[in-house]
Amino acid sequence: MNIKPVAAFEPPYYTVVFTSVRADAPEGYDETAQRMDELVQEVPGFLGQESARTPGGLGITIGYFRDAESIAAWKRNMEHRTAQGRGRAEWYDSYSVHVAKVERSYGFVRD
Amino acid sequence: MNIKPVAAFEPPYYTVVFTSVRADAPEGYDETAQRMDELVQEVPGFLGQESARTPGGLGITIGYFRDAESIAAWKRNMEHRTAQGRGRAEWYDSYSVHVAKVERSYGFVRD
């Protein structure tokens, strides 16, 4: 298989867990999500991101960042703030955000 | 919508991010995954868990635990260890594990 999970980096680094429930394909969502996926890659200290969604509508996005400052920079981004506001106003029924410092990490790749 | 993401708890607590790529429905996987879902709920300090998978085969599971000791207890569980061994031997092409202490959390629920 060609796809791989984002690798386990050398701690410390940060992970931002964003879990959400939203309506199916609401207006403007896909374009904004795609723009955010591009924009976050410009943030210094951004390490990677991965997302998945259940058929029932629960979405999980994990972002990986070098340090707290890189998360703060992403949080300050005005285009991101506008998207977040629209998310609360229009798209999401509920979400949770967990900002966490990675203390231990490991990975496995089949030979 | 009735489904909700696991709530943002009061920090500190821990999140274990498990991302993996595996073949579609390999033998024995579903039964074991379901058994692990039940078993982890008996671990003192287990707070919750949620999973999603992309059509491409990337799976994300997030576990939430009260403290490092509750994660250690789950790691020591013999049935869990056996399942992990089988995962490496048979099911997974690759995986990453990130064990992280939550420093900040928040949530949103539409009125």
Written description of the protein model:
- Two copies of one chain form a homodimer.
- The first copy, chain A, is of the alpha+beta class.
- Chain A has one domain (22-102): Alpha-Beta Plaits, CATH 3.30.70.100.
- In chain A, 32% of the residues lie in helices and 40% in strands.
- The first copy, chain A, has helices at 29-40, 68-76, 78-91; strands at 13-22, 46-53, 58-65, 92-109.
- The first copy, chain A, has a four-stranded antiparallel beta sheet with strand order 2-3-1-4.
- Chain A is globular, with a radius of gyration of 15 Å.
- The first copy, chain A, starts with 12 loop residues before the first strand and ends with a strand.
- In chain A, 27% of the residues are buried.
- The mean pLDDT of chain A is 95.
- The interface between A and B is large, with 46 and 46 residues.
- Strand 4 (92-109) of chain A pairs antiparallel with strand 4 (92-109) of chain B.
Blueprint of the fold:
Two copies of one chain form a homodimer.
Chain A (H helix, E strand, L loop, with lengths): L12 E10 L6 H12 L5 E8 L4 E8 L2 H9 L1 H14 E18 L2
Antiparallel strand pairs in A: 1-3, 1-4, 2-3
Helix pairs in contact in A: 1-3
